[in-house]
Write a structure and sequence with these properties.
By secondary structure, the chain is mainly beta. The protein has helices spanning about 5-10, 50-55, 90-95; strands spanning about 15-25, 25-40, 40-45, 60-65, 75-85, 105, 105-110, 110-125. β6 (about 105) and β7 (about 105-110) form a beta hairpin. The protein is globular and about 50 Å long. The N and C termini lie far apart (about 70 Å).
């Protein structure tokens, strides 16, 4: 594994939810998913009733997660692109996923699990630390008068 892949997996393990994206009948979609990092792989849990797993299974997907809204001084975003496959999780993996939601859109939650084999990994960071450089001084803007001609 490359250093970027290791860093991405580490960051991903710090949050519980992300978004999976692919296309269904030639139309793109993005769906929320619960994820875990296990043995260098990303496993996601979706609700079977939405049918998104059928579009993802055997297809190239993008899976992204971030710490936006965390008030951290460094905001990060991770994206994995790779092939997704339906999988049966082990007992240890099920335990790592934790509690399931009771319902999705009023329908009883029925989990389906997918494993993503990352082929491309990107990590982006936004630095909001207080040690910022002062902005360059700006020159005063010239005054412009607009004239309306009838």
């Amino acid at each position: 594994m490359s250093p970027d892949e290791i860093r991405a997996l580490d960051l991903l393990s710090r949050v519980s939810y992300g978004r999976v994206a692919t296309s269904m009948r030639a139309m793109p979609f993005v769906a929320p998913a619960r994820h875990i990092v296990f043995d260098g792989h990303v496993l996601i849990r979706l609700h079977r009733g939405l049918g998104y797993h059928r579009a993802c299974n055997g297809s190239v997907v993008a899976y992204g997660a971030d710490n936006l809204g965390s008030d951290a001084e460094t905001v990060w975003s991770v994206q994995f692109t790779g092939t997704a496959r339906i999988t049966d999780p082990t007992e240890a993996q099920l335990a790592a996923f934790g509690q399931e939601p009771r319902a999705v859109d009023g329908e009883a939650f029925d989990p389906v699990f997918m494993r993503i084999e990352p082929q491309f990994v990107t990590v982006h960071t936004l630095d909001y630390t207080s040690e910022r450089q002062a902005p360059a001084p700006t020159l005063p803007s010239p005054v412009r008068h607009l004239h309306h001609v009838a």
